């Protein structure tokens, strides 16, 4: 099994690229994991395992004795839960030992959702007269238009796309496959990319991957994150933008437009609808703003 610090580094990279967490949150997670690793080592434990539940509970009990607030302990447990879930997802562990440890309910933190106007500004940034720009434009449109995770976006294969029927076949978490529709804008960008830009990028090479770099290799999550960061800086949008921001925007804009929660759950690939329900809070805030603006008693 890889060293604890190596596993922690991989997990923190995942939080940056896949989850789009802020630098402050990443620093907190790093501190939480370091404290937990000290607890493991003080108990003579060198590696994590699926049998770590007593160690997790013991560590949280020690933290309680230091008069740490319930909110801080809950955040700490959230970091450990995320870490263990990541290890299961990466097949380092067969089971998550933190899943039966209670997490105090301290309220939901709503994602900072991009407006439709902000998304449109971002999607307009790539120069589509260039083959790389055309590829980037297609990637942005698909990410927002289908609500994909960035890992799902960069692992799409050429045969996963059906532009005629306007859908994508997406391989999600836990090897779960789902069909996601794409709209007219994403279809147009994809058709242009496939017909013009992709052959230029491949230069006669063959590739099963949908989105390719100049050498014909698939674009990585980190590579796409750098591209998005550049466009975000040039777009003039002041909100923090990550690949996950467009997934949040996809779900929130659908809900605000009248889509039902179950349909959004299916398109996002959430196994549990409770993961999707956070967007009802975003929509509720939007409705409240509409009421205050337009209702005579608002």
Describe this structure in words.
There is one protein chain. Strand 2 (167-171) and strand 3 (177-181) form a beta hairpin. This protein has a three-stranded antiparallel β-sheet. The mean pLDDT is 84. Helix 2 (23-42) packs across helix 4, helix 6 packs antiparallel against helix 8 (184-202) and helix 10 packs across helix 12 (278-294). Helix content is 57%, strand content 4%. The chain is mostly helical. The protein has two domains: 4-89, Tyrosine recombinase, N-terminal domain (DNA polymerase, domain 1); 116-290, hpI Integrase, Chain A (Orthogonal Bundle), CATH 1.10.443.10. The radius of gyration is 21 Å and the shape is globular.
CATH-scheme architecture of the largest domain: Orthogonal Bundle
* SS element count, helices: 12
- Gap from first CA to last CA: 59 Å
Q: How many domain modules? A: 2
The count of β-strands is 3
CATH superfamily of the largest domain, by name, is Intergrase catalytic core
* Percentage of residues in helical conformation: 55-70%
The SSE order reads HHHHHHHEEEHHHHH
**Shape, please?**
globular
Strand proportion: under 5%
CATH fold-level label of the largest domain = hpI Integrase, Chain A
Point out poorly predicted stretches. Answer: none
Condensed summary:
This protein has 298 residues and is mainly α. It contains twelve helices and three strands, in the order αααααααβββααααα. The protein folds into two domains: 86 residues, Orthogonal Bundle (DNA polymerase, domain 1), CATH 1.10.150; 175 residues, hpI Integrase, Chain A, CATH 1.10.443.
Name its key features.
hpI Integrase, Chain A; three-stranded antiparallel β-sheet; mainly alpha; DNA polymerase, domain 1
């Amino acid at each position: 099994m890889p060293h604890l610090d190596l596993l922690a580094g991989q997990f923190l990279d995942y939080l940056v690229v896949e989850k789009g967490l802020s630098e402050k949150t990443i620093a907190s997670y790093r501190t939480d994991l370091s404290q937990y690793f000290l607890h493991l080592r003080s108990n003579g434990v060198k590696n994590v395992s699926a049998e770590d539940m007593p160690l997790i509970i013991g560590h949280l009990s020690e933290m309680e004795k230091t008069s740490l607030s319930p909110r801080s302990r809950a955040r700490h447990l959230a970091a450990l839960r995320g870490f263990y879930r990541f290890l299961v997802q990466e097949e380092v562990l067969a089971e998550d030992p933190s899943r039966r440890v209670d997490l105090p309910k301290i309220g939901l933190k709503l994602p900072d959702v991009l407006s439709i106007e902000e998304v449109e500004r971002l999607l307009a940034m790539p120069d589509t007269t260039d083959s790389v720009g055309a590829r980037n434009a297609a990637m942005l449109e698909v990410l927002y238009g289908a609500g994909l995770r960035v890992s799902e976006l960069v692992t799409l294969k050429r045969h996963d796309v059906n532009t005629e029927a306007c859908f994508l076949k997406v391989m999600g978490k836990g090897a779960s496959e789902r069909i996601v529709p794409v709209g007219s804008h994403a279809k147009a960008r994809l058709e242009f990319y496939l017909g013009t830009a992709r052959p230029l990028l491949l230069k006669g090479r063959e590739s099963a991957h949908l989105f390719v770099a100049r050498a014909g290799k698939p674009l990585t999550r980190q590579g796409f994150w750098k591209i998005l960061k550049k466009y975000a800086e040039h777009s003039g949008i002041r909100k923090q933008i990550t690949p996950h921001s467009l997934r949040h925007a996809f779900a929130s804009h659908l809900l605000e437009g009248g889509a039902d929660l179950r349909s959004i759950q299916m398109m996002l690939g959430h196994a549990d609808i409770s993961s999707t329900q956070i967007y009802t809070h975003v929509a509720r805030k939007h409705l409240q703003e509409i009421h205050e603006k337009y209702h005579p008693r608002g």
